[in-house]
Design goal:
The protein has about 450 residues and is α/β, with parallel strands linked by helices. Helix content is about 30%, strand content about 30%. It has two domains: about 325 residues, 3-Layer(aba) Sandwich (Rossmann fold); about 100 residues, ANL, C-terminal domain (GMP Synthetase, Chain A, domain 3), CATH 3.30.300. It is globular and about 70 Å long.
């Protein structure tokens, strides 16, 4: 970075909206005033556990903590055990939630005239983000202010984020994807953001209708599927962004028809943040953000302080494009035959009548024979029909034993499936799954 410090808010007209809350714009001068008030009231601790669900209240608390020189802890789960683990791992911490920040907000416009924009050292650890735990325990990843601003500038270049544009996001701001798109973009790129976190399709529709054009919907495959299935008439966005899991071309096509707008995807990880994008219907190649280099599965360059090995297996397609081949943890070997859980899941979910399903990693039977399990939502199909359809698509060694039918998969708030949640669900209904869960 050229400067030792960077502002907490990009230069923009003081009366331009940084957020839309309860149908009304919140200008940047008011935002700075409220940040200053909250900063004085935050817990006097090194770390601030930010549990705000209201996106605007999260934004205020996040910037207030940074202005104080504090570090925000961004939990990947709201499970009580996970939060307790964080408190034990970071004893010098306090927590804030919506009610706290709401009660501290002030709108005394007489005090905000000429309020300066705080600046932070680029090396200040602004946040600690945690992996989703989809392949095991959540791991902490410190994020400096310089890294976060650098990532926001990359997204601005790729997606054209600019003042006058408004984002509506369904993903929580504590998630790295949500943090980069719905928090850092307003701070570093001048866009506005809808202050809520719409969940159900009609909530998403209402949020889009509340903000001016051009607007962008930032979402996940699971939310996008629900919106498409709802059959609503949608306020037209300039484009949609999806992340957290690869989007199927069929869903992307239906979404583009429903919203009359292009569907773009972001590829990234908690370790590095967002690093590439694609338009799903243009093919399976991802294009790196400017400045990144990808060599033998290791990412470097741009704003990264050090190289980051990717958890996914990728195939380079020239200098700036690549294909995803699956996660390293997904590779399995049964009876000398190799495949990936991603491939198995693809084959399972392409069966007519399957709403969604997932394979679990192999477990040891009493005879030390490895077996796969699968959990599937398919109301109109029997177990026998599902296994027959899989037998047409898979080698017999990869057929799941057991195949467990359920009413819904245990997705977390970002739409991801964790191994632990899948095993816990399966264990409630099948003895073999219970044994695997307890091992």
């Amino acid at each position: 970075m050229i400067s030792a410090k960077l502002p907490l808010l990009a230069s923009a007209a003081p009366d331009s909206p940084i957020a839309w809350r309860q149908g009304q714009p919140v200008d940047r001068a008011t935002f700075l005033h409220q940040v200053a008030g909250v900063a004085r009231r935050l817990p006097s601790a090194r770390f601030v556990l930010n549990l705000c669900e209201d996106r605007y209240l999260f934004l205020v608390a996040f910037v207030a903590a940074g202005a104080n020189g504090q570090t925000s802890l961004l939990p990947s789960s709201r499970a009580s055990r996970h939060l307790q683990d964080l408190v034990e791992a970071y004893p010098d911490s306090g927590r804030v939630a919506d009610g706290d920040i709401e009660s501290w907000l002030t709108r005394d416009a007489g005090d905000d005239a000429g309020l300066p924009v705080p600046e932070l050292p680029v090396g200040h650890v602004m946040a600690i983000a945690f992996t989703s735990g989809s392949t095991g325990q959540a791991k902490p990843h410190p994020k400096s202010w310089g890294e976060l601003v650098g990532g926001a500038h990359q997204a601005r270049q790729r997606f054209g984020f600019a003042a006058g544009m408004t984002l509506v996001a369904t993903v929580p701001p504590q998630h790295m994807y949500g943090l980069e798109t719905s928090i850092m973009a307003p701070l570093a790129s001048g866009v506005g953001v809808h202050g809520g976190r719409p969940f159900f399709p009609d909530d998403v529709r209402a949020a889009l209708a509340e903000v001016p054009v051009p607007r962008v919907l930032v979402t996940t495959p699971i939310h996008l599927q629900a919106c498409v299935q709802a059959g609503l008439r949608w306020p037209r966005p300039a484009f949609l962004i999806s992340a957290t899991a690869p989007l199927s071309p069929s869903l992307a096509e239906r979404a583009e028809q429903a919203f009359h707008a292009p569907v773009l995807e972001i590829y990234g990880c908690t370790e590095a943040g967002s690093i590439a994008s694609r338009r799903t219907l243009d093919g399976d190649r991802w294009r790196l953000y400017d400045g990144f280099r990808l060599r033998e599965g290791v990412l470097s360059g741009a704003h990264l302080p050090e190289p980051v090995p990717l958890n996914d297996i990728v195939e380079a397609c020239g200098e700036v494009e690549f294909k995803l081949l699956g996660r390293r943890e997904d590779l399995i070997n049964i009876a000398g035959k190799r495949t990936s859980l991603g491939y198995l899941n693809h084959r399972l979910n392409e069966i007519d009548g399957v709403e969604e399903g997932a394979f679990l990693p192999p477990y040891e039977t009493g005879a030390e024979v490895q077996r796969l399990m699968a959990v599937v939502v398919a109301p109109g199909l029997s177990e026998r029909q599902l296994l027959a359809a899989l037998a047409e698509r898979l080698d017999p060694v990869f057929l799941p034993r057991p195949l467990i039918k359920v009413a819904a998969l245990p997705r977390n708030e970002t739409g991801k499936l964790t191994r632990e949640a899948l095993l816990a669900l399966a264990a409630r209904v099948h003895p073999a799954a219970k044994a695997a869960h307890e091992s």
